[in-house]
Design brief:
The protein is of the alpha/beta class and 356 residues long. It has 13 helices and ten strands. The chain has a six-stranded parallel β-sheet with strand order 7-6-8-9-5-10. Strands 1-2 form a two-stranded antiparallel ribbon. A two-stranded antiparallel ribbon has the order 3-4. Helix 3 crosses helix 4 (62-74). It is flat. The relative contact order is 0.10.
Length: 356
């Protein structure tokens, strides 16, 4: 019951928010639901699914309760079956998809050679991809893991940092190192890095290579140019899998031309290539992150609408000006034709015609 309700009954509070028309009462090991019959039946189904997940060893969080309620509302199956499949277990912590979108993303990695994970911050794009990479290495499905990302500043200039080239590059790759240390024994990670079984490198180091029997993850792909994206995808060798992750709403390139945006149009519909699109519903960070993502999405949509309306007004004004010019030109042409007709009148010289 303690695991079901959460610390300070936080999960119980989340349950009540998901079913606002139901009163939930807990006494001992008994949960009582009161309200209209349809609402009570929906809440009871949710509670039963959460109990199944707890008995299966799942450590519930607020996101799990929200995702389970959403899955049941959408009729997408049993939350206990969808959300209880762990990818990895590291130091007593299981890494697993926590939303329906994340589950579809993980399944796509199993079923396709190249997968693009596109979505806002906090949706687990990179984290789940790295978990699948570590899982593939542990199962000996691949010989090595290669993690890469473009070295692009997020609005700051870091080129004058002191140190060697490696020292300058490390800040860009630090998120990948942090995730590795969470998923693997921290004492084992340096040995794997030294032996080349795990490689963390900037995207520029990929040129000219053929990556066989590898699980390759490209992070922050929205900051690749179209040429870099083509270069990276053509590194694919035999027995390898690739996962490309990025958020096309956070492009830090000076020119703004993102290779990730282009590749969604160029490679769409090709077999064995899958585009997994995550949304704010798949955010597993603080609840505010999902609201922030929605607010920025709404702002961008309004901005694009306003820009479209301005463009249409300019076109309409330009069309009106063209019509006015055309009418003026028509009047001039008529006067010229009348004058030419007078010039051609029989028995009159040009001088007489002009004088007349």
């Amino acid at each position: 019951m303690v695991r079901l309700l959460g610390p300070q009954d936080r999960l119980l509070t989340t349950l009540e928010r998901e079913h606002a028309g139901v009163d939930v009462h807990v006494r001992g090991n008994q949960i009582t639901l009161q309200g209209e019959r349809p609402a009570v039946e929906q809440a009871a189904t949710l509670v039963e699914e959460l109990i199944r997940m707890v008995r299966g060893g799942t450590d519930l969080g607020e996101v799990d309760v929200q995702s389970s309620a959403r899955i049941l509302r959408d009729g997408a199956g049993s939350p206990a079956d969808v959300l209880s499949q762990a990818i990895l277990t590291s130091r007593g912590k299981s890494i697993r998809p926590k939303t329906l979108g994340q589950k579809a993303y993980v399944d796509a990695i199993d079923e396709n050679t190249i997968v693009f994970g596109i979505g806002p911050a906090g949706t687990g794009k990179t984290y789940l991809a790295m978990a699948k990479a570590v899982q593939a290495l542990q199962r000996k499905e691949v010989d090595r893991i290669i993690l890469t990302r473009p070295a692009v500043e997020a609005g700051e200039r870091l080129g004058f940092l002191p140190g060697t080239l490696t020292d300058k590059i490390d800040p860009y790759l630090r998120p990948l190192y942090d995730a590795l240390n969470e998923m693997m024994d921290p004492e084992l990670v340096p040995k794997l890095l030294a032996s080349g079984v795990v490689e963390v490198a900037p995207l520029a180091y990929m040129r000219g290579r053929t990556l066989n029997n590898s699980f390759v993850v490209l992070d922050e792909a929205q900051n690749t140019t179209p040429e870099q994206m083509k270069m990276f995808l053509t590194r694919l060798g035999f027995g390898s899998s690739m996962v490309v992750t990025g958020d096309i709403t956070q492009v830090d390139l000076p020119g703004g031309a993102s290779g990730l945006s282009l590749v969604t149009r160029v490679l769409d519909g090709i077999d064995d290539i899958h585009f997994a699109r995550l949304t704010s519903d798949d955010v597993v960070r603080h609840n505010l992150v999902g609201r922030i993502v929605d607010a920025y999405t709404k702002y961008d949509a309004e901005k694009q609408k306003a820009e479209y309306e301005r463009t249409e007004r300019r076109r309409a004004n330009a069309g009106s000006a063209s019509d006015s010019d055309a009418r003026g030109a028509t009047g001039v042409n008529r006067a010229a034709r009348r004058q030419a007709t007078r010039d051609r009148l029989p028995g009159r010289s040009r001088r007489d015609t002009q004088r007349w």
